Amino acid sequence: MEIIVCVKRVPLTQEVDLEINPQKTDIRRDMLAYSINEWDNYAVEEAIVLKEKHGGNVVAVTVGTEEDEEVLRRSLAMGADKAIRVDPGNLLPDSFGIAKILAQVIRGMPHDVVLTGVQADDLNEGSVGTMLAELLDLAHAAVVTGVTAEGEEATVRVELEGGVEEVSRIKLPALLCIQTGINEPRYVSIMGIRKAAKKELNVVKIEDLSLSRNDLSPMTTVEELFLPPETEGAQFLEGDPATVAEEILRILKEKGVKK
Amino acid sequence: MSEIFVVVEHRNGEIREITYQLLWKADELCRKGSHTLTAVVLCGEKENFISEINDRADRVILFEDERIKNFNGDLYKELLVRLIQEHKPILTLIGHTPWGMDYAPSISIKTGYPLATDCVDVIFENGRPKVVRQIYAGKIFSRVAFKDSEGYLITVRSGAFSIDKAGEHKGEVIKKDIPPDLPTARREFVAFEDAGAGAIDITQADLLVSIGRGVGEADKVPAMQELANLMGGVLSCSRPVVDKNWLPKYHQVGTSGKSVKPKVYLAFGISGAFQHVAGISGAGCVIAVNKDKKAPIFRVADFGVVDDLFKVAEALKAKLA
Question: Of A130, B64, B180, B278, which sits most exposed with the smallest number of CB within 10 A?
């Protein structure tokens, strides 16, 4: 089974005060740490699990700068066989552009299964995977929480609202957008990443993909970023933990919660 | 003047709430821009959804076929692309649901209409839509414009708009035939399964002691269970806790878990992603404990504590012991 998994490096923004740049078009990134997009981490694990079961190869692909190779090396350490980075140069493609670039790369490679994360931590658009499926003319499923491949088909589980899962049969080759929780991504050690440095990591320049500027012109543009409008928000309980605990218990009593 | 399309979402013979939210917004946009509102229904034979929506749209376009009784992304895409190419609606509104996410991007590629996803507001400026989205887990808002196009596609976040009926409409029903050359779907529905049933029912609790990613590791979960027991509450959690297998799915609060309505919801180390917050709108009172003062949960909580959750948990235990 030939498996391709698309990954993205994103800033870690939990427990971080985000600031907007002076042009109001992006966040200030200079102080942020980066990691693999959480959904993509599950997608890489799922790719490796499929390979372990069915044999074949896993190729990890990203669109980004040299710094973004970090997530490819991590994917190689997890068990991917090969990695490709597409260097977009000075272009800043939107999700539509990213899908077009990925499609152009993947088209020339054997693929039975293409995996992406459902969405990315940063912009949570959730559209690259399905756009890519359409561009490659692949059957697809969004928000996948289970995959069992059998021959030329797979059974997939899709997470719906309210704890309901939709089970369906899909023809391979297919593109699946992987949801968090589908598996337990394996631990990656520094040693593992060092060892994986020997694996093949190719860089493709965007100019070599025979895409025109028109192909990559964005469908949407960010006009302005702004902070969430002020809400009344929470009334903060101040003091040491003991004082706060006392106050919480008082509120519980007031709201009629019986012990 | 043009048309605004709303694609009706339904499951198991019931219209999903997101549909009414889309219709509510579409009604407002139609009135401001002198557009007409068209609801598009793809459903099985005699599913009878018309009476529930035709007073909210000027026109209801109906495709009835057993192949689309249950959602099918391949067939939705085919039928909607053809319909959009025929009608050229200025705007098509689709729910940003697992199903909307399945076909909206495909339609964008097929029609060339630009798409903005997971939008929390839509406005028209000079005849062209703009949207507001939330990025970085709701810490930043983004106003997004489209490139010039004949029509635009927008998926809307669940809960962003009211489910109420706004304007008066009298929907004319137009039944459409399924084209004979409709391709065979590459993905076929098998069944719905309830993944959320389990040993406890978090929807009936008066007090939920709820834990999130901030708990940090599986080993810390028993101490929080102990606290829930001491307080006479039930332990629940946010998505990351289930993703990491620290607790079974039936503990999960949120859009993909359960909606809850306790008298008090005590959230420990939950950042407050919108999918989670959507599940606690019925709570009488929300108390949130989180180290991050900017965590979105504090925007919806009644009371907040900015502190290490374990310190607060231990202090509560000490008072109750």
Answer: B180
Share of chain B above pLDDT 70, in %: 100
Q: Is there a domain that residue A77 lies in?
A: yes
- Other Cβ atoms less than 10 A from the Cβ of A192: the count is 16
Pick A171's closest partner by Cβ from B186, B242, B301.
Answer: B186
The domain total for chain A is: 1
Is A109 contained in some domain?
A: yes
The residue assigned the tokens 């539509």 is A96
Task: Report ipTM (2 d.p.).
Answer: 0.94
Please report which helix (H) or strand (E) contains residue B292, including its range: none
| Within-domain flag for A236 | no
Q: What is the mean pLDDT of chain B?
A: 95
Q: Which phi and psi (to 5°) does residue A105 adopt?
A: -75, -45
Note the pLDDT tens digit of each residue in B250-287. Answer: 999 999 999 999 999 999 999 999 999 999 999 999 99
Closest residue of B to A133, CA-based? B106
Give the nearest partner residue to B316 out of A220, A233, A245, using CB atoms: A245
**pLDDT for the residue A208:** 93
Which tokens go with A221?
A: 């543009």
For A96, the domain range is 2-216
Q: Give the one of B139, B144, B320 whose C-beta lies nearest to A223's C-beta.
A: B144
Q: Write the DSSP string, A200-239.
A: EEEEEEGGGG---HHHHS-SEEEEEEEPPPP---PEEPPS
Our CA-based measurement puts residue B227 at a distance from the nearest CA of chain A, in whole angstroms, of 12
What residue type is A78 in one-letter code?
Answer: M
Q: What CATH number does the domain containing A116 carry?
A: 3.40.50.620
